[in-house]
Amino acid sequence: MGGTAQRGLTKLPAAKRRKTKTIGLEVHGIAAPVEVRLRVSKTRRAVVVTVPVQCRMDEAGRFLNSHIEWVRDRLGRVPEPVPFVDGAQIPLRGKLHRLRFTGSSSRGRPVVGIGTAGSGMPCLDVSGRIEHAARRFKDWLAQQALADLDDRVGRHARKLGVRARRIGLRDQTSRWGSCSSSGLLSFSWRLILAPSFVLDYVAAHEVAHLVEMNHGARFWRLVAECVPRLDEAKHWLRHEGSDLHRFGVGWSG
After folding, report:
1. By CB atoms within 10 Å of each CB, which of 97, 155, 222, 230 scores lowest?
2. Which residues of 174-198 are buried (b: 16+ CB within 10 A; e: fewer)?
3. pTM (2 d.p.)
């Protein structure tokens, strides 16, 4: 944000060390060992090879090929993406719903209505022309996320005696929220897919940064004052958070 100091809740790399292959290289002229790392990104469904600037691309390619079975195994464990299409199962505030594109006129109807399928699973009925249904649903999710975040940020800000300047939504893969020193809070719209106590925690985390732009002991005390399920929310994000990125693939918010 234009050089403004910023703190945020980065996406905790669940067991990242266990999901990374590392090899040491000896580079002429460098006394210290040089490491090349290989991992599979669940959020991007991509193979990431991190190499030092001194490493040639052919060396990186050999490293990848020598661990191709490891890569295939990891890729095979990455859940398939779930686009916003008729019949898809999408979580909303942590509960699975089935998407139904009704094709019915949207005049006089809400963009998205909540019904029930024969199986008992709640449904999200998207009205309007089928070709525009995915976009309408995406916009609706963003509106829901902004409304929930505005409510929780307001509550936590009043409790801590601060005021957020503005709330915005993004679709980053590296963090769930951020706070600038000027009071701008930014959040991932995908938090609306998570259980409400998780969204609540992220909102409290960023509001607490309006008081403490660090992750020291006082900062965590402030967060704990705001949310009773702090440890549960952190655990959920660490182990389940990356899965939220497979829904509605291709939307940048």
Report:
1. 155
2. ebbbbbbeeebbbbbbbbbbbbbbb
3. 0.77
Express each pLDDT in 92-131 by its tens digit: 999 999 999 998 876 766 789 888 877 788 999 999 999 9
Cα–Cα dist 169/233, whole Å: 20
**Under 8 Å CB-to-CB from 237, ≥6 apart: which residues?**
11, 12, 176, 194, 198, 201, 202
DSSP, res 42: T
CA-based R_g, the chain, Å: 21
The answer to whether 33 and 24 are in contact (CB under 8 A) is yes
For 179-215, give the DSSP string.
Answer: EETTSEEEEEGGGGGS-HHHHHHHHHHHHHTTT-SS-
Q: What is the pLDDT of residues 61-77, one digit of tens each?
A: 776 677 778 667 767 77
